[in-house]
Write a structure and sequence with these properties.
The protein has twelve helices and 14 strands. The protein has helices at about 10-20, 35-50, 95-110, 135-140, 150, 160-170, 195-200, 235-250, 290-305, 330-340, 355-360, 385-405; strands at about 55-60, 65-70, 75-80, 120-125, 185-190, 205-210, 210-220, 260, 265-270, 280-290, 315-320, 325, 345-350, 365-370. Strands 1, 2, 3, 4, 5, 6, 12, 13 and 14 form a nine-stranded mixed sheet that branches. It is elongated, with a radius of gyration of 24 Å. The two termini are about 15 Å apart. About 45% of the residues are buried.
């Protein structure tokens, strides 16, 4: 296999340039979707693409597509991710995939490689959902998961709508520019977990995005004075909730060693230190690849209603779920072979976090590549991935793109 490498130093410098847009005092980045910082990042991305001869288009959702033309009318090979971040997020989440796509384009132009298949770099709008919920909004609309009118009406904390913010930064484009077909879509992303670093591997070849389920549990008791009500005469919703949590952990933990579950939201009412809590609301979220394990999780959660709560009422409500998304098998196998040929250490793995590629996989052949996250940290200012691993990840994607150019 002919092997080609990206310019690692240029990749690093471009990542550092984007990290200055919305830089925080702690060395992270705050670049919420459709803010002035997001506009500056978008402008810089478009500038870089045009400097290397790419044709830049924007669709009605603000997605940006920068394309190198091919000689044949074949759906493009697409590489990319997102430029928006969470508040006080990191320097690699999302932007690495976009910069990888840009650096591959630079490498193709620099080596005067004639493309049969068009090559497109994409920046998806509002992947994080940190300003406008839900996350992965634009890719969700593209794939038919979300309704455009409903999403355009979503408002941030200042009651600015998504549509208003998109127009304000000048990135409300044409619906006709939407990505409708692709020969392949590849997203390079940081792992956002500790596995690759712990195992000393540089590359994660991603097979799927895990299925998940989320339930809300409400416990109803009775408020009374904290100093005058004997313990044996109380209906304390917080004590009852604690018992339910303990029971849930005891019963979920043995189901499978790859199962993860989280009690992530927890609210106590009236939340006054002199008043016995009369109401507690919390969530239990769980993720696993195998739908049979998820079904067992749901059985456990629904069975928590039988927990002894000393007179408190338990209400259990399913909030939402998603099925495991499996990436294109042939594309995943191809990337694994490229990784082997390049001599990089790797493992096949699954993603516990959601990504734009999972929505896009519903109508284009899609796959993902992970690179290590130091100490597994992400969505924080401490987020870091060694630049040499960023380069290796980009090389895997580059050489996969070159193979696809020859073989499609």
């Amino acid at each position: 296999m002919q092997k080609l490498s990206v310019n690692g130093e240029r990749l690093k410098q471009t990542l550092q340039a984007f990290a200055e847009i919305g830089r925080t005092e702690g060395g992270g980045v705050t670049r919420l979707a459709l803010t002035e910082e997001d506009k500056r990042a978008r402008d810089y991305f478009c500038q870089c693409c045009r400097e290397w001869g790419m044709d830049v288009k924007v669709d009605d959702l603000g997605n940006i597509y920068a394309t190198l033309a091919g000689t044949e009318e074949i759906p493009p090979i697409v590489v990319g991710s997102h430029l928006d971040t969470v508040k006080k997020g990191g320097r690699f989440d999302g932007v690495l995939g976009v910069v990888c796509g840009l650096e591959i384009a630079r490498t193709l132009v620099e080596h005067d490689i004639k493309l049969r298949v068009p090559y497109t770099v994409v920046n998806f709008t509002n992947e994080e959902g940190a300003r406008f919920e839900p996350s992965m909004m634009a890719s969700g609309i593209l794939s038919g998961k979300f309704d455009k009118e409903q999403m355009m009406a979503k408002r941030d904390a200042e009651q600015i709508s998504f549509a208003e913010a998109l127009k304000a930064i000048g990135y409300a484009g044409d619906e006709g520019e939407r990505l409708k077909q692709a020969s392949a879509l590849i997203e390079l992303h940081i792992e956002q977990g500790p596995v690759l670093e712990r195992e000393g591997r540089s590359i994660g070849v991603v097979e799927s995005v895990l299925g998940m389920v989320c339930y809300e549990i409400e416990v109803l008791g009775e408020s009374n004075h904290a100093g005058t009500t004997p313990m044996n005469m109380r209906r304390d919703a917080l004590f009852a909730a604690n018992r339910i949590l303990s029971e849930a952990r005891r019963r979920l933990a043995p189901l499978d060693d790859r199962l993860v579950f989280t009690m992530g939201r927890f609210n106590v009412y009236p939340n006054v230190h002199t008043v016995i809590p009369n109401r507690v609301v919390f969530t239990i979220e769980s993720r696993h690849k195998d739908p049979r394990v998820i079904r067992r999780v749901e059985e456990v959660i629904r069975g928590l209603g039988a927990t002894d709560t000393e007179g408190c009422e338990i209400r259990i409500r399913k909030l939402w779920d998603r099925k495991t998304v499996f990436f294109d098998e042939a594309l995943v196998d191809r990337m694994e072979k490229v990784t082997k040929d390049l001599g990089y250490s790797y493992r096949r793995m699954d993603s516990g976090a959601g990504h734009d590629a999972q929505f896009m996989a519903s109508y284009v052949p899609a796959a993902m590549v992970f690179v290590p996250s130091r100490k597994g940290k992400s969505h924080c200012e401490e987020e870091f991935t060694p630049y040499e691993d960023c380069e290796k990840g980009a090389n895997v994607v580059l050489n996969t793109v070159l193979q696809l150019q020859r073989e499609l």
